[in-house]
Design brief:
Elements lengths: L8 E5 L13 H13 L7 E4 H7 L7 H17 L3 E4 L8 E6 L1 H5 L2 E4 L8 E4 L1 E5 H7 L5 H12 L9 H8 L4 H9 L4 E4 L3 E3 L5 E3 L3 E4 L5 H24 L3 H5 L1 H8 L7 H9 L3 H18 L1 H33 L27 H10 L1
Antiparallel strand pairs: 1-7, 2-4, 3-4, 5-6, 8-11, 9-10
């Protein structure tokens, strides 16, 4: 790592984040560009250095020096082609002495726009972001962390406070999946994610507001409290839903309730049967959304399996009723002795809260306990 840093901060032109534009810098290019600013001596226009020196200062040394120098040369030549630096060397940037001038003033005046399919308005990149020496040191050891630091700083210091979507991070990192982007953000110890609130859109679909971020050192007490509150939001939401439920079996049976209302609990036969047979509109709506989500993410087969099992259970109950009815008729007609014992055994029904609804002593005992 660079041992001597004389400045207080580096300046990153915001067009460097302009994904899909000619000004976008990848992680290597951004790190080299920031490093060159630390390296620049006050009052000296031209930086004179060598690829080997940059490799050592950025701790990019591996067992193959030619590959290390090529990594630096590629980053420098790309910075030159994108207008960030003026680069001079005799014939080979990997081997020759380098003369570099930083075009910081020109690049801070550039503007870029990026359009993506998941956002209506384009992103506009202009101005610049300052990263202090301490912030740089927190982030520079890892491949993506300086990009995370600089992008977060830009968003936090913008005219308006912006949240940052996972898709946006993926674009900034030039990655194909948001899963990879989330892993990078999770690895940034200096940054804390504040998860966005969950809400229902006009179609009743559950969505989540965009996540926000804050550095640990900048986190206010109120923000820390919000972080704790966010962890309790799931419980609060479920309890609010429980209050609306009129089906007492679903309301009081925790397993059934969670299968229908809790997004992290998979719906199984118990919850599916309760949903099919309930008269509660809240349960019907929540169950339908849960089933639609399962069909979308895990396939229709899972719900078809539950429906088949439910139909089989109805048929089994129907056959039981028919068998009991026939037995009663034969008893009445004297076709069988009353002492005769059928091989069929009626399954005992487990008592539920609903079984007590007609029992006055149950409610009397509740009143005594209150």
């Amino acid at each position: 790592m660079l041992k001597i840093i004389t400045g207080k901060y580096v300046q990153i032109p915001n067009v460097a984040f302009g994904f899909g534009t000619d000004y976008k810098l990848n992680t290597d290019e951004l790190k080299v560009f920031a490093y060159l600013q630390w390296m620049k001596t006050v009052g000296t226009m031209t930086i004179r250095t060598h690829a080997t020196i940059i490799v050592e200062d950025l701790n990019w040394t591996t067992t193959k020096a030619s590959r290390d120098n090529a990594r630096v040369a590629t980053a420098l030549e790309s910075l030159r082609d994108k207008g960030y630096i003026t680069l001079s060397f005799k014939s080979d940037a990997r081997k020759d002495a380098l003369a570099i001038e930083i075009n910081i003033k020109e690049m801070k005046e550039k503007t870029a726009e990026s359009t993506v399919g998941w956002k209506q308005n384009p992103f506009t990149f202009s101005g610049y972001t300052e990263v202090s020496k301490d912030e740089y040191n927190l982030a520079v050891e890892h491949d993506y962390h300086l990009t995370v630091m600089a992008y977060y700083k830009w968003r936090a210091n913008a005219k308006f406070t912006y949240a940052i979507a996972d898709q946006e991070w993926a674009e900034v990192f030039e990655l194909k999946t948001v899963k990879q982007a989330r892993a990078i953000i999770s690895d940034c110890d200096f940054l804390i994610k504040i998860s966005g609130d969950k809400y229902q859109d006009e179609n009743g679909q559950w969505k989540q507001e965009t996540n926000q971020y804050v550095m640990e050192k900048d986190m206010k007490t109120s923000d820390k409290l919000e972080k704790v509150d966010a962890e309790n939001k799931k419980t609060t939401f479920l309890e609010k839903q429980r209050e609306k439920v009129t089906d007492l079996f679903v309301k009081l049976d925790e397993e059934t309730f969670n299968q229908i209302f809790d997004k992290k609990t998979y719906i199984e036969f118990k919850g599916y049967k309760a949903w099919k047979e309930t008269d509660c509109k809240v349960v019907k709506e929540a169950g339908r959304k849960k089933i639609d989500a399962v069909m979308k993410t895990k396939g229709a087969f899972n719900i078809e399996r539950l429906e088949k099992k439910y139909e089989e259970s109805l048929e089994h109950e129907r056959q039981q009723e028919i068998a009991m009815k026939r037995t009663d008729e034969r008893l009445e007609n004297g076709e069988i002795d009353e002492e005769w014992t059928s091989s069929f055994k009626k399954k005992e029904k487990k008592s539920t809260f609903l079984d007590f609804m007609d029992d006055d002593t149950f409610f009397e005992s509740m009143e005594e306990d209150m």
